[in-house]
Amino acid sequence: MSTLDKVVAITGASSGIGEATARELAARGAAVVLGARRTDRLDALVADIRAAGGRAELAETDVTRRADLERLVALAVDRFGRLDVLVGNAGVARIAPVAALDVDDWDAMIDVNLRGVLHGIAAALPVFREQGRGHFVTTVSTSGLKIVPGQAIYAGTKNAVRTLLEALRQESTDGVLRTTAISPGYVRTELVDHVEDPGQREQAQQAMATLGISPDAVARAIAFAIEQPDDVEIGELTIRPTRQG
Ligand code: NDP
């Protein structure tokens, strides 16, 4: 019997960790509101969840646009009466040394990984305050904990978000807000398929294929954080392959 009576909006829900989280939470009873740019993928996911008896809605969402996040949050409130959790999961990874000066890639990572999370906070925070409760769960990365060459900007955006969540937590000790930073290691998803440099891409894909854990494992970690009672906050969770260095 499913017991998770929460309304959860998820960005980057069209593949990988976001998709797995949508399926996991919906199976546990949550109403999920799904955002990403590839709406064909979201359509199929919503159909699957509904066919299994779950509750799901979708909105085309580009997290670099503030208005899209406002629409996603408004959809949750409109359809389900409230928003309990925003999972800020949309992300992009581009791997290259700083000296390559791939400035467009830097901008893409800052816009999606950092600005996108800020847009989610700007949209959901007033709703959380008005409701008297709310939870920001955000996918950061072990890349922000163990710095490796080629990931300076990516790790920088993830660490900026980690800092942001901790500051938000310290500013909100009245019991209204919870923040959780989920830090996955290698997870088998499409994330590095978009790396442009063929050598870097192949190396990252190889690491994912040989070491990577299933996105379902991260989805279960997110569910664990969300399922805690209101007075318990899981501030940070790392979840990585046992064999990852
Ligand atoms: P995927 O590439 O499978 O998923 C990325 C998701 O982000 C997609 O749903 C994509 O949807 C969405 N996205 C990208 N750009 C935008 C945008 N501008 N607006 C809205 N959505 C966007 O990779 P993962 O599942 O691995 O990535 C999910 C998160 O996990 C990311 O934040 C990533 O940094 C993080 N992470 C992943 C790790 C891994 O090893 N896989 C390790 C550590 C952290 P669409 O293209 O349809 O918009």
UniProtKB/TrEMBL annotation:
What's the source species for this entry?
A: Amycolatopsis vastitatis
Taxonomy of origin reads: Bacteria, Bacillati, Actinomycetota, Actinomycetes, Pseudonocardiales
Q: Which PROSITE patterns match?
A: ADH_SHORT (PS00061)
Protein name listed in UniProt: Oxidoreductase
> Residue ranges of the Ketoreductase domain?
6-189
Asked whether the UniProt record includes Oxidoreductase among its keywords, one would answer yes
MF terms (GO), sorted A to Z: oxidoreductase activity, acting on the CH-OH group of donors, NAD or NADP as acceptor
Q: Report keywords, A-Z.
A: Oxidoreductase
Family affiliation: Belongs to the short-chain dehydrogenases/reductases (SDR) family.
Record flagged with keyword Membrane: no
